[in-house]
Amino acid sequence: MKLQQVSESCFAVLNEKNRVCDANSGLINLGGGVVIDTQSDLPHARRMIELFGKVWPGMPRRVVNTHEDSDHVWGNQLFEGAEIIAHRTVPDRMRHVADPHESQKLLRGAERLLPRLLLKAIHPGVLAIAKQLQQDYDFSGIELAFPTTVFDERHVLNLDGTEVHLIYVGPCHQVGDTIVHLPKERVVFAGDVIFRQCTPMGWTGTYEKWLQTLDLIIWLDPEVIVPGHGPVCGIEGAMEMKAYLEYVREESRRFFDRGLTSLQASKRIDFGPYASWRGPARLYANVERAYREFRNEPADAAWDTAKTFDAVYSVARAKGIAVEF
Ligand SMILES: [Zn+2]
Fold first, then answer.
1. How far is the CA of 174 from the centre of ligand 1 (A)?
2. How far apart are CA 181 and CA 164, in angstroms?
3. Ligand 1 center to residue 278 CA distance, Å?
4. Cβ(13)–Cβ(48) under 8 Å?
5. What is the pTM of this model?
6. pLDDT per residue over 58-103, tens digit each?
């Protein structure tokens, strides 16, 4: 993990491996301090606190969660007494999509021989992601710490005269998606609306809303964007995400019209210029989302995560590339 200053008062902690769970955190070093997103486990959250500690005078008074996914909320408990701010949907969604016990069980299962063999036979993708996570993560001790302040469309903080706008943009990648904009410093913390140099994975939301949100970010004209995953960028990061989503939706439509399943389509769609992004086989999740829209299914239709990881695994195998999430 590394610390990077992105403007006069804004900083980022970046997880440079940029694989699944390697989320970024942000810091606005004004008004008692605001941390944006809190990492995937307690060791990473502690390391983030240590890195930000080089520039802040004390533990920050506020935390913002850009959405409900585990890799953005699992360090919340270390900010005792802080105000935790998120969109109104986030507390309830965290209970559904960020239950730490599920992931703890998964990693424990993958450590022991019999459950491992069983997993390999039934869910090879689940075993593969568990093995990858074991290399970097330790989910023990995580307890959900929920937002204490929720908002609907917009929440504005005034930090020593600098305005910080929390803008609700979901559901595009996930239900609670929020971006954090500092007009004066021309910085946007984009959460998982932007993945940089790694393949996005969206869960609940629509292509339309996601593309609109990327247009909004471009319109805000930031000098610096801190994405949810991957290195810091400018608006070219938003433009590339748009191009990726449009490409995948178009390719998906072609194969959908020919009657192929989302998995068959994912094995055939050329990665194109995105082959060098981390985890290109995660393409499957984006194809599946497009298929759901073509079938007019609701944006909040449930995901079978085991099936999704198995599909990503089989796309990687079919393409002859390393299995990586
Ligand atoms: Zn994330």
1. 10
2. 6
3. 14
4. yes
5. 0.96
6. 899 999 999 999 999 999 999 999 999 999 999 999 999 999 998 8
CB 192 within 8 A of CB 177: yes
- 284, 239, 205, 23: CA torsion to nearest 10: 70
End-to-end CA distance of the chain: 18
Q: What is the whole-number distance in angstroms between the Cα of residue 256 and the centre of ligand 1?
A: 28
Give the distance (Å) from ligand 1 centre to CA of residue 228.
6
pLDDT digits (tens, 9 = 90+) for 22-59: 999 999 999 999 999 999 999 999 999 999 999 998 89
Q: List, edge to edge, every strand of the sheet that includes 2-5.
A: 2-5, 10-14, 25-28, 34-36, 62-64, 83-87, 149-151
Q: Can you tell me the distance from the alpha carbon of 139 to that of 98, in angstroms, rounded to the nearest whole number?
A: 12
| Distance of CA 230 from the midpoint of ligand 1 (Å) | 10
Residues forming a β-bridge with 87: 151
| Spacing, Cα 291 to ligand 1 middle (Å) | 22
217 and 13 in contact (C-beta within 8 Å)? no
Query: Which of 294-307 are b and which e, b meaning 16 or more Cβ less than 10 Å from the residue's Cβ?
Result: eeeeebeeeeebee
